[in-house]
Structures are given as structure tokens and as C-alpha cells.
Amino acid sequence: MTPIQIIGHAGCGKTTLIVDLVKELTKRQISVGTLKHSAHAHELDKPGKDSYRHRKAGACPAAMMTEEMAAVYLPRNHTNTPDQLIKTYFKQTDIILIEGWISGPYDKIELWREVVKRMPLFPDLKRVKALVTDDALPSRVVQDAGSNEIDCLKRSDVEGLADFVMGLTNG
I need a labelling partner for 13 at 20 to 30 A (CA). Which of 54, 154, 161, 168 fits? Predict the structure, then answer.
């Protein structure tokens, strides 16, 4: 299993890119898992529902199962980290696409859009392997990417992006 982080500023299209990559990679018979990391504290369960009430009463873990899905709710603590979730639940996947977790330790692909009106994140981060956009990059950004050995890739070329992701799994 190879975790790859998809990073970028809010509103740049990370979720849409991940959906497109999952579709393309699974079409190639690659098993893909995803992990959405949020830096904000918010409730994942539905307040008032049975699973929520079980958890609030002290059940740990609290799980829910339907005919089509299963969910396990765990409290976040020092032993329950993104890395631990990956080791526990993603053993059977070839690739794990992680949305966010900017401080994470894995190779990163940054998505950038001019409309967000913020400079790319890569100059301040480690392990960024590609900058993805269909927008015209400022020449300084292209120079910085080149000097940091970061590939500049087209967002509209999903097949090419999937090829790049596959290359990261073999490297």
C-alpha cells in the first residue's frame, strides 16, 4: 500500500481530483482507499442517532452496520492517528489517497488554482512531488518548482495524473 497526499488550499478542488483519480485507477484494476483528513474538530456521527447515543454513553468502539456499509467510530487520541488507521484498515489497498493532512509524512501532490488567490504551499513543505493545475503558473512558481524537482502537471489530464501516481507507488 502506498499513501499519497493530495494537498492544496481550501476550494482548489482536492475532493474532485481524488474522485477523478479513484475512477481512473479503479478502471485500471488498482485498489484505492481514501482518507479525508480535517484540521477542524466536528461531529462525524449524526447527533441523536443510535450510534451517536451509544458512543456518547461510553461505547468504544461504537459501530454501525447496514446491508451496504459499515462504520466504526473511534475517539481521536495519541494512539488513534491517521497512520494507525492506514495500518489497520488499508492493508488490502494498492494506493491510499489522503485528502489533506498537510503535515503528514508521505509524498504529496499539490493542486493549485489561481481563483483561490493564494500562492502554492510547496515551498514550505517536504515531499511535494507535483504541482497540478490548468491555470497559468507565475514564472517564479515554475522556477521554484523546477529547483525543487517538482513536476508541473495538467489537472485536465487525469490519465497522465494517474500514471504519475502509479510512478510514485513504484519509486
Answer: 168
CATH number of domain containing 139: 3.40.50.300
Phi and psi dihedrals of 78, rounded to 5?
-65, -20
Say how many domains are in the chain: 1
On the question of a cis peptide bond just before residue 61, with omega within 30 degrees of 0, the verdict is yes
Residue 123 within a domain: yes
pTM reported for the whole predicted model: 0.88
> Which run of H or of E encompasses 140?
helix 139-147
Give the pLDDT band (50/70/90) at residue 37: confident
The answer as to whether 138 is a domain residue is yes
Per-residue pLDDT, 92: 92
Cα angle vertex 24, ends 105, 94, to 5°? 45
Question: Which residues constitute the domain of residue 82?
Answer: 2-41+75-170
Among 84, 77, 82, CA closest to 37 = 82
Cell of 102: 498537510
**Whole-angstrom distance, CA of residue 87 vs CA of residue 70:** 18
